[in-house]
Amino acid sequence: xxxxxxxxxxxxxxxxxxxxxxxxxxxxxxxxxxxxxxxxxxxxxxxxxxxxxxxxxxxxxxxxxxxxxxxxxxxxxxxxxxxxxxxxxxxxxxxxxxxxxxxxxxxxxxxxxxxxxxxxxxxxxxxxxxxxxxxxxxxxxxxxxxxxxxxxxxxxxxxxxxxxxxxxxxxxxxxxxxxxxxxxxxxxxxxxxxxxxxxxxxxxxxxxxxxxxxxxxxxxxxxxxxxxxxxxxxxxxxxxxxxxxxxxxxxxxxxxxxxxxxxxxxxxxxxxxxxxxxxxxxxxxxxxxxxxxxxxxxxxxxxxxxxxxxxxxxxxxxxxxxxxxxxxxxxxxxxxxxxxxxxxxxxxxxxxxxxxxxxxxxxxxxxxxxxxxxxxxxxxxxxxxxxxxxxxxxxxxxxxxxxxxxxxxxxxxxxxxxxxxxxxxxxxxxxxxxxxxxxxxxxxxxxxxxxxxxxxxxxxxxxxxxxxxxxxxxxxxxxxxxxxxxxxxxxxxxxxxxxxxxxxxxxxxxxxxxxxxxxxxxxxxxxxxxxxxx
Length: 534
Fold this sequence. Notes:
- By secondary structure, this protein is α/β, with parallel strands linked by helices.
- The chain is built from 15 helices and 21 strands.
């Protein structure tokens, strides 16, 4: 006999923990692993939950327990089993491919359990109809989520019933249109609504999922809950990372001082690289245009064009030197920015020198009026996230942080930390960068690290004064600092700000935060489209 369930669960449970009448004795409700001795009670529950279908067979329930005992749970109220959940592990490819309940569960025996599968498939949640006022269903859903987190799986997936479809069939062209209405929130299907409230997202329609489920018209919604603690970049991180979920960053607020050569400039930043490395930082960040210190040591005063040409000629030596420091001190260096020759133009380019020896370039896209008119610097055309041993990150140079579209692009590409080297000559300019970076952190639910210059450079046109208060900014939610500031330097002194960034807190905020800016965007109303090649 083939057992064909309509989907995970029936109607949602909705009340709180119970308490028996009278004084002295309190009712006890617990969730525990399923045992073989529970099987007769599970059969009776399935008979009451699905009165129009044959109940589970003892062999099916035993097969589920034997194949994956840690994935089977029961809810026990005052010593009586009143609900149960059955799961198994499966590959992502199989979980998200078209399937029926019968084919995916192996006829209800959990025969397709794959111990290496990265997804937990929910084949059943059933609650005794007499106990649906004690939030038992919610507890069982939470037990599955907890199991996913304990095992480090990607999430939970299952075929969810759509029992409102048959009743409203005439209002829609077919089950696909009904599914889309449920997914978009235009229709509140009773079961799907509960599952969506539990954090599940409708992924696709499953045709002929459960032919015996007449209320759902035989179809189901493939529902998925993605584990906020799962880090797809975890396995690619070096074994030398002490805690793959924590990234320590140091933002250097650098005092401008003349440098007679690239070697002298590198010597001045080596101190901060050394200190950041000794403190266990994964990244050390330097300010925008910090290399213009080379112009202050030039024997004669140069015109703007001559100055940019002269400093651009030192690019290779500077980048090679920073790359050597990154490897030597085992730290990723976000090397501020440096005027560089790109074709027949000078562009403002940030160089990320990674501790494995790789070098990533990021051009500034939006140049300020001073850069454009005085130094003849031109804007680049591309911005992208890039991989590091701490996962994907991105760089937005100063003015670029004031344009939300750029941050959206790189965060959509996976960046979880945005580095912003900047150079501003007064408090107003600094605040533009700071406040925009805090906005980027909130609207994208990412970390943003800023590093600016302080002091002045004699003999360098357009770098007369510098104002900075470097910082590390977070989303504003319970998991982070109260004011959204993880660390902040004192203003206008040479120093460094260091903070630990918890990537798991970031993932949790995106999935369960008080607000979920990154996920709750209205793609049905707006989107940013980039030109090809940019």
